Amino acid sequence: MAHYYHEPHQFRYALGAFVQAARAVTFMLQKEQRVFKDFAWYQEWVERAKKDPVLQWLNDARTDFVHRQSLEPKSWLRMRCIDNPREIPDDNDDGSIAFNVSPFECTHYYMDKGPGTDHGHEWTRYWEIDGLRGREVLDACAEIFDKLDELVVDAHVRLGHSTTTFKRENSKRNLPCMENLEKYRTVRTVVEKGREVWQDEPPRLHRD
Ligand SMILES: [Zn+2]
Ligand SMILES: [Zn+2]
């Protein structure tokens, strides 16, 4: 999801895959409950999960939920001009011009569109989905991952098994790649030889 944050199609696909995989965790645990002498601890977890907004969203989300309509009301894409020679000072706080454009087009679409540009842009996206109530999607999914990770670790510990952790000391997230999400949300383009080029573009965004 982080990799495809600026590719609406793949992002939605990855989100759907994440939700299915995340739900499979508790299904699998329930299926294997006979290996535990006592399964009451899981019922207690379920009760706590019912009061947890992100886990509640995961539970309620329909499997065909990742429709454009459910992302439409709150998601956005902001395009800010960098060193646009036509800039009017004081148009924005920092003097730059910014536009809100449809987040349902990928960043390449805007880069390749229309006449050549003489300046680069900063592109910031925000994805939110119905039911998440003010939470950005990637951030909420990282939190879901951590909570399910803790559940899986707990299940292993109860059976006397150990697990591997990737968590760094003093990190609020279990996966190092989910620690700073801002870096996935904003990208920059510059003009090189008359063309707008994405700086540090992640590899293989389009399969051609
Ligand atoms: Zn511009
Ligand atoms: Zn693209």
The proportion of residues in beta strands is: 5-15%
Average pLDDT taken over every residue = 90
Question: What number of structural domains do the residues give?
Answer: 1
Number of strands: 5
Helix content: 25-40%
- The string of secondary-structure elements, in order, is HHHHEEHEHHEE
Helical stretch tally: 7
**Ligands, deduplicated:** zinc ion
Broad shape: elongated
Tell me what the structure shows.
This protein has 208 residues and is α+β, with helices and mostly antiparallel strands. It has one domain (1-208). The chain has 7 helices and 5 strands, in the order H-H-H-H-E-E-H-E-H-H-E-E. It has helices at residues 8-31, 40-49, 53-60, 68-71, 107-112, 137-158, 182-185; strands at residues 76-82, 98-101, 120-126, 186-192, 195-198. Strands 2-1-3-4-5 form a 5-stranded antiparallel beta sheet. Helix 1 packs parallel to helix 6. The two termini are 20 Å apart. The model has no long low-confidence stretch (mean pLDDT 90). The site of one zinc ion has 6 residues, from helix 5.
Structure described in brief:
The protein is α+β, with helices and mostly antiparallel strands. The chain is built from seven helices and five strands, in the order ααααββαβααββ.
